[in-house]
Amino acid sequence: MRVIVWGSSGQMGRTACQVIEEKGHKVVGRVTRAERALPPADVIVDFSLPECTSDLLAYALQKKLPVVIGTTGHSAEQQTQIRSASKTIPILQAPNFSLGLNLLLVLAETVALVLADSDIEIVEIHHRYKQDAPSGSAKELLAVLQRALGPRSPVHGRQGLALREPHDIGVHSIRGGSVLGEHQVRFFTDWETLALTHTVHDRRVYAEGAVKAAEFLCQQPAGFYTMNDLLRTRW
């Protein structure tokens, strides 16, 4: 598999390049602010910035290349561009490429359907330098629960008089130290509590997942895919 890595100079881009080569594939092109090498390839892996999206999609559409998008923070307009491009080329987009985290999303939906009357709280922990809160993965957890249960109001932290309403979902962000990422969903009933937790120990897990996504995407027709589509091939 010949891969172009868009955003290859960033932390995730560099790790992705390393994992791609270790898996027996070939990094044939690298795109950074200072470099733009675009030889023939089989797939693009994107860990760049949202402002690069238009240029990336234009090239991918021109060359009919599948694209794995790991960049987050796209605007509604950029997301529309991605969806539109997926009608012509295969695109897999994910806020998090960890197989474990994506399995957590599946498990959280299953538990929510069974314990539909439970009180649900999401807690995510990241290092002190993470800029956005809640994390993209916490937002995805919330979206999964809302799809499973219908309208639920997110409550971001509590202060003062903060009586819990029946359809609240608490979303809490903790920042400190060098924690790479931990996400937990707790389901409280009057008789028991069920907690689902995922913890990252090495950033490499994201690059490993992105390479698996690229291998999967190279075999797919045009369309919009998520990590859930990849997980379905494993059961």
Features:
Dihydrodipicolinate Reductase, domain 2; Rossmann fold; 7 helices; 235 residues; 5-stranded mixed β-sheet; alpha/beta
Give a short summary of the structure:
The chain starts with a strand and ends with a helix. The protein has two domains: 2-97 and 203-232, Rossmann fold, CATH 3.40.50; 99-199, 2-Layer Sandwich (Dihydrodipicolinate Reductase, domain 2). The chain is built from seven helices and eleven strands.
Radius of gyration: 19 Å
Specify the CATH homologous superfamily of the largest domain: NAD(P)-binding Rossmann-like Domain
Provide the helix percentage. 25-40%
Poorly predicted regions are none
Content of β-strand: 25-35%
Mean model confidence by pLDDT: 93
> So how many helices?
7
Number of domains: 2
CATH class of the largest domain: Alpha Beta
Largest sheet: 6 strands, parallel
Termini distance? 24 Å
Question: Which structural category do the helix and sheet elements fall into?
Answer: alpha/beta
Taken in chain order, the helices and strands follow as EHEEHEHEHEHEEEEHEH
Strand order of the largest sheet: 2-1-3-4-5-11
Look up the CATH topology of the largest domain: Rossmann fold
Overall description:
This protein has 235 residues and is of the alpha/beta class. The protein has two domains: 126 residues, NAD(P)-binding Rossmann-like Domain (Rossmann fold); 101 residues, Dihydrodipicolinate Reductase, domain 2 (2-Layer Sandwich). 35% of the residues lie in helices and 25% in strands. It has seven helices and eleven strands. The chain has a six-stranded parallel beta sheet with strand order 2-1-3-4-5-11, with helices on both faces. Helix 1 packs across helix 6, helix 2 runs parallel beside helix 3 and helix 4 packs parallel to helix 5. The longest helix has 16 residues. The radius of gyration is 19 Å and the shape is elongated. The mean pLDDT is 93.
